[in-house]
Amino acid sequence: MTAPVSEAVSEAMFCSLLADGSVVTVTATRRARGGRADIKCSAPGAPALAARMQEVARLARHTEARYDSRDQVVISMDRAPGAQERDWELAVVLADRAVRGLLPPAAVPQLALGWSDGWHHGRIDGHDAGNPPAGALLGGPQHLRHLGALSGQPDVSASVSSARAWFPLHSGGINDSLCWVEVSVYPLAAGEAPDDEAIAAPGLDSARQHAVRQALAGARHFDGEAAPRWRTTVRFGQDGLHGNSYELALVLADRLARGREFLPRGRIIASGCSGAWHAGQVEGVEGLAPKCALIAREASAGDRVLLPRAWEADLPPGLRDALRAKGASLACVERIGLI
Amino acid sequence: MMFDLFKRMARAPAFDAAGLGTELLARPIAPGCTLPSGATGVAVDRSGRTRRISAGGRMQLLDGENGWCFHPGPYGCDLAPFAAAPEIGLRLHFAVDSPDPRVSQQRFDLFLASEGAGDLSLAGFAANIEAALQRELAQGNLDLPPCTTLDEWNAFRAGFNQLLYTRFGVTVDDCVPVDLRPGRDFAALLRARAVHDADEPYIGAETAPAAAALEVAGAAVAAVPGRARFDPAREDARALRRLFLELPCLMCRVRQAALPSGQDLFRQQQALLQRLDLVCLAASTMPALSLAAPGQPLAASQQLRRARHSVQAAAALDEAWALLARFELAEDRGLEALFDDADRIVANLEHATGERKLASAGEEA
Questions:
Q1: Which domains does chain A have, with CATH numbers?
Q2: In this predicted model, what pLDDT tens digit does every residue of B4-32 receive, in sequence order?
Q3: What distance in Å separates the CA atoms of residue B303 and residue A333, rounded to the nearest whole number?
Q4: Is the minimum CB–CB distance between B351 and chain A shorter than 8 Å?
Q5: Domain residue extents for chain B
Q6: What is this model's ipTM?
Q7: Chain A / chain B CB contacts < 8 angstroms
Q8: Is B205 helix (H, G, I), strand (E, B) or coil?
């Protein structure tokens, strides 16, 4: 279910930065509509800005699948940005989504910077802040390109298709986290010969680059891709990977980016490797217990968890039900692709 | 006089059945024509009541009735369940089934009566099905996740079959996932998008390389959504006709389908039905699009606003049919969520029809 009304939060907060470096807090609350406008906005002493906030939030709602006329969302900023500043737009859009339960609730207000001229396409064009703090959500071509990218989905209007999948990164207890891998593909020009650089993974050492190329080439062979069609870039959310349990996530992100995989409503969270990607097989990896614990903690509504079939017998009891209660789903697979 | 009668009988117009059963599901038929073999006739009167005329018979229409002729199929088409994944799809085989004797009006007949306009082509019908499927998947009412397991696939199929039967009145013979690759090339689609993006800032200035790339991309260009003109009068009339004809049938089906077990759910259902009744009333007493008050024309911008609200109401109606399909499959424990969704959809219907009635947008913050 997407956001049953009874369970959704009634307040959501996001932060953004002003040009002078101070923090502005965007608060969204939800109440019964009672014949009023669907979105009401306010910023201290700036009615024109409030009108622009309402416009941004309304435009960004165009990409949502579900329309609900029962609620009014009230969005307010605790200080008014200057008329030329636009980095607050992303925070307004995200607050509007979070308060209706479309985004998982966060414990602390997250910093979000971004503006767009194409909110009605869900596109985020860029951000202005010079050197934003680490951990901030940034809009723009190098960062968050469109709203669907929050759950890793490819943009349906961009000419570069890129998708993300997440995998659990086990580094000994407290530092365990979900790390993403992003695959971007762009069609090779007609007649362009694919070279070694056709699959690039900037920032990785040569051994790992080779492993990434092997995995992708194998998985594409499994798809029956006779001639190479794509120029590919692979990026990871963190450096210093070890092991090869990222491979399943990598292969799935590649399939999503190439438009050859069904889309989950949330993120793909996968762990697994293979010695035979050309046959589409998925094999088990190390670290079942900590990874399952991490996934159970981090998964949110709509996520799709994919684990190797080899793990199925040893899964912690109750994991499946816990995930289902959160709105996520779990499957143990022995091969990728169509059933 | 007798002579005239014979003459008229003799020159009963011939019905062109070309394509019926392959590219065409249905086609309007003139009164007096003989139905081709294998095809069934449907007569629709002014208030939307329908009756069937069996194959091989003659279309004897009463005054004010329109005739349709449809072929039961089977038909086959390819669907893309996700707009962002064009190379993976579903191959669907469906048919318009023999009539269900338990209901007074077949759903497919209602579809023809309320949405039929000219020839009903297979491609257009498949596009309708695809839109309904994509919306249900995006809302999470149907699930088709990556690496679907057999159980998930069966649950999806059950929901999808029911959706098609409830919304369109067709039965699914077979539905399998397929690779659409040879026919639909994502790389070509992306190239076409790049050309499209490059074109956008410049109006009218089409450069030679862009035109060449457009030719290469061929069919893919058509997939870049075009900006068809929105004609308020036509869209409004279509949407209101749908509301007027389909809402009473929908309420009838809701009464039959969802028989809640507990007292609370029963009250909720009664409240929903009452609200739907009022929406029905609103739809059948809707003021004319182009008049603010009797004799006073309405500004074009307000007409556009009114038409958009009618289209929104029709979209909510689509969701309501999909919800009805879920009600028909539901077991007792999932009912609360379904009633919540029903509440949302009815609220959207009330909102859209209410806004459609207003002569000018009068919304306060």
A1: 11-151 (3.30.230.10), 161-333 (3.30.230.10)
A2: 555 555 556 677 777 888 888 888 888 88
A3: 54
A4: yes
A5: 18-70, 186-223, 232-357
A6: 0.84
A7: 134
A8: coil
